[in-house]
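Changelog-adjacent note: as of this version, every example in the card shows the full chain rather than a window. The one below runs 216 residues end to end.
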Amino acid sequence: MIANSTSARFRALRWAVTITTVLATAGVAFGDGPQIVRVEEDWELVVGEPDPGSEAPQITCAISPLGNLDSWYATFELNQQSELTFEAGGLQLQVWEGEVLTVDRGYPNRNVLMQTGEVIRWTQIMKLQDNSLGFEVTNGTSTTWGNFGGQGYLKASIPVSMTSLSSYSPAVSVANSGVSYAGNRVESIVLKAVRYYTSTGEVIEDNTPRVAHSHN
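Full-length structure tokens:
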């Protein structure tokens, strides 16, 4: 994960924004009202000067339905595939239960970052449907891997009993996302926007930029 494959927790939470706060701000009542069944995160990665010879940099972004990484969560790795054996380059989606890997999905294009100043964008989706919790990467754009996500390669689901994603917080995503190797070669990683979808069809968008990494 961020420091290694058994721990994605590498900095303290810096924001206390919760889904309940967002809904209240948007005028949507929570509690006995509609449940959150889908969350979408828009991410942007700006590469500085990569070093393909040393397989740098390597990035991981996390998303969890809970306020921590103690139970179910997913990570999306860029320019590395750390599970089940490490491989440089490419993209990999992993689903974890605490420190136990349950699912890993790799992308066929396993190129290594080498373009200075490359900008990579993607959307991380988490949703509840048919007694399962699904994770997927979509709308990816990059020079290294082209258009990625949405083809089913970076998609996984697990059976769960939860009925709402109300415990999701973007602070957890940001606090557990960043550069696991060669942070000096990444200009920035930013969670640009979050969208919440309710069981009754409302969509609430939070366009607050949240910085997971910045190289000053």
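Structural remarks: The radius of gyration is 16 Å.
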